[in-house]
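Ticket opened by: R.M.
Priority: normal
Category: complex prediction / small molecule

The reporter submitted a protein together with 4-nitrophenyl phosphate and asked that the result be attached to this ticket for the collaborator who will pick it up next week. Submitted input follows.
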Amino acid sequence: MRILMVCLGNICRSPMAEGILRKKAMELNLPVTVDSAGTGSYHVGENPDPRAIKTAKQFGIDISGLSARQISENDFTEFDLIYAMDEENLRDISTRVSDVKQLKKVKLFLVASGERSVKNVPDPWYGSMQDFVEVFKLLNQACDRIILSIKAELSGN
Ligand code: 4NP
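Result attached by the on-call engineer:
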């Protein structure tokens, strides 16, 4: 199972989501690969935002070595699931697909995870460290549910 996390810059939300889901998959020994990308190209080649790195580190996850990239055509064949962090990302990703099969892979992350209180992962870019911590916790809870559904799917349930 190959999963791609997508936000705007690929330096705040999606690299944290990538690190979180990868760790959970490893802990459960599941054959899941996780990557992330941005819809925009402004930060291509950059490491995650220092606040995202610091927040993830506080929760035992090292994302300091990740490097931002922009989503590409290949991703729609390389990945089984493409999770958009917010509805704007979902729209941007959807305009890039070339067929219905690819479109079916694209989902709004929180809604797909079963989160009921909020649809969009807030963009913490203009926020404080506290905003990053809150986003991390939201991502972490959603990834807990997503990894369980993947585990069930992989075991045929
Ligand atoms: P991300 O956050 O989409 O979660 O990586 C952002 C990072 C940079 C910008 C916007 C959002 N920016 O406008 O440069």
